[in-house]
Design goal:
Blueprint (H helix, E strand, L loop, with lengths): L1 E4 L5 H11 L4 E4 L10 H4 L9 E4 L2 E4 L1 H11 L14 H26 L10 H17 L13 H15 L7 H11 L2 H6 L3
Parallel strand pairs: 1-2
Antiparallel strand pairs: 1-3, 3-4
Helix pairs in contact: 1-3, 1-6, 4-5, 4-6, 6-7
Organism: Cystobacter fuscus
Keywords: Transferase
Protein name: Glutathione S-transferase
Length: 198
């Protein structure tokens, strides 16, 4: 397997999951600033010139969520996804999609707003209220739980914790100590540390 990767992007999720799986893979680092993701060779893999891209034999995937779902199911013996038909499968799918589709756009909107000059910053009060509603749902779900879906670590924790980590750096988790503690626990995992090193 080969992962096309750039640091501080959603590609880190895919690398983290590969490290959790402890399966061999080749890491192809690309420099976004040097436009290495817009070469004809890379555009043949990802038509928008983004990362991550996973090449797994004849299968070529982009979108970090699709890659995480694929990898977790590809190695069922690693137990990073509940098997289809199991009691925990529905919750796993619900929370991994909730993280990506409901939480991530709100956090990313706040992130991009922080990158704007002061005079161009938008009023995100409506989005911030919605974000707090979403964080409250997660806060309730994680009350007394170590993991978001079921009783063990899954790919849903990879996706959720990666998004919550960005939220924490933006100080969006203030007032949500359970979410901060959850994020910190996942950040301390050995595979997480390997995924963000070098």
């Amino acid at each position: 397997m080969k992962l096309y990767f750039a640091p501080r992007t959603r590609a880190t999720r895919a690398r983290w999951l590969l490290e959790e799986l402890e399966v061999p893979y080749e890491l192809v680092k690309l420099d976004v600033a040097k436009q290495e993701t817009t070469t004809p060779a890379h555009l043949a893999l990802h038509p928008l010139g983004e990362v991550p891209v996973l090449v797994d034999g004849a299968t070529v995937l982009f979108e970090s969520l699709a890659i995480c779902l694929h990898l977790a199911d590809r190695f069922p013996e690693k137990k990073l996804a509940p098997p289809p038909g199991s009691a925990d499968r529905g919750a796993y799918l619900q929370w991994i999609v909730f993280a990506e589709v409901t939480l991530d756009p709100l956090v990313v909107e706040h992130y991009w707003n922080t990158q704007q000059p002061e005079e161009k910053k938008a009023d995100l009060s409506r989005q911030h209220a919605r974000l707090n509603d979403v964080l409250e749902v997660l806060d309730v779900r994680l009350d007394g739980r170590e993991f978001i879906a079921g009783d063990s670590f899954t790919a849903a924790d990879v996706v959720l914790a990666s998004i919550l980590h960005l939220a924490h750096t933006l100080k969006l988790l203030d007032g949500y100590p359970k979410l901060f503690e959850y994020t910190l626990r996942q950040a301390k995992r050995p595979a997480t540390r390997r995924a963000v090193s070098g």
